[in-house]
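Batch 3, record 17
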Amino acid sequence: EVQVVESGGDLVQPGGSLRLSCAASGFTYSGYWMFWVRQAPGQGLEWLASVNEDGSAQFYVDSVKGRFTISKDNANISLYLQMNSLRAEDTAVYYCVGGLSWGQGTQVTVSS
Amino acid sequence: EIVLTQSPGTLSLSPGERATLSCRASQNIDRNFLAWHQQKPGQAPRLVISGASNRATGIPDRFSGSGSGTDFTLTISRLQPEDFAVYYCHQYSTYHYSFGQGTRLEI
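Prediction for the assembled complex:
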């Protein structure tokens, strides 16, 4: 069974940084693209970033480009999202997705 | 960027009825890389359909997906109480993925 588990969500001040992690199991991790999606309170789903199978190529939505960095560690079967220069509008539940299977999400709140 | 437009925004039906949800893309979706995800209140989304028509593991056969190119449909043949949720279409055919705005399926 495919399992994806996020961690690292927290309350952070505007301008601060946070690193989200995602542990995956139950599928051939190195053979899949992975991506992050977020959902602001009461809103729909927003794709944020994707990384290819071997981690060599990354793609971002314009609103996070230059602030967020996605990375994939195949040796440790982990995915990361480094988030810098956080803004209030980044407040959301962040989901890791692999093999089109979703984690349970981790809450990020940006507030002073 | 491919923009996905879902219709209707809200669909009000009763258990036992048939639901038809639409997803239209602003440009062709290659290889039918179109998925449908279900989200219930307070829960993470769950994959229902991938590749436009392939049911995910554990999804009952009352769910079916169809379509190609720019027009896709999710059909639920006989609604059960547990099917009432928000459904999102999602394209993963380009490097920049995108989601539709969702269709709320309510009783």
